[in-house]
Design goal:
Shape: globular
Strand content: 15-25%
Strand order of the largest sheet: 1-4-5-6-7-8
Radius of gyration: 19 Å
Low-confidence stretches: none
Mean pLDDT: 92
Number of helices: 7
Length: about 230
Amino acid sequence: MKDKKEFVNIIKNEIKKEIEKRGINSLSEVLEEAREKYIKEIKKFKIKDPEQSWKPFKGKLVEEIIFEYLIKEIEKNGLKVIKGEKLEKEESKLNECLSKVKRSLVVDYGKFGMHLPDADLVIFEPKECKVVAILSSKTTLRERVAQTGYWFLKLKSSKITENIKVFFITLDEDGDLIVKHPAKKGRAIAEIDTDGTFVITNKKIEESNKVKKFDKFLAEIKKLDLE
């Protein structure tokens, strides 16, 4: 193998192929199985801390796999998806539709200006160029769920943005969502301050109207198309 970049691409493709075979709910298990190989091989490139190197690799790969899957499934339902960071561009650098998308999402902070919510993906209806949902995704709940809850409250506080759904997707590797009662703090936020939190896992969880396994997310997308 020539270099680190080549190795990273090879192991990424191996992980993606395994996910295709076993299904996206196996993502945590597949990553854990790949971890040992990654750490062993990455040492050959004189990485000082192979264990530490695994964490950002895993984080970026999880994001990539989830987003690729979601974009494909969402667009099957006639909706469009854009990464939230792309809407941060000046309007002059966006096409007409994306400019409308941005304007339908911004939150008014009065004298402190108009600002976009933090979102990994923005789902919009392409004919009217209007946002229908925003979505954030992280490996563990603690990394982002409180922030997602904040934007849920901000969007619901305005007549212009109150109908935009706020979703959170996680592997929940810390197990914060497994039990409904007594709820951990993360579960409480997911239940009250999101429109839906979806868990990518093969493990059993106590589901509710708001917290469900990831396969239920596609049903939510179909609802968006009808609203």
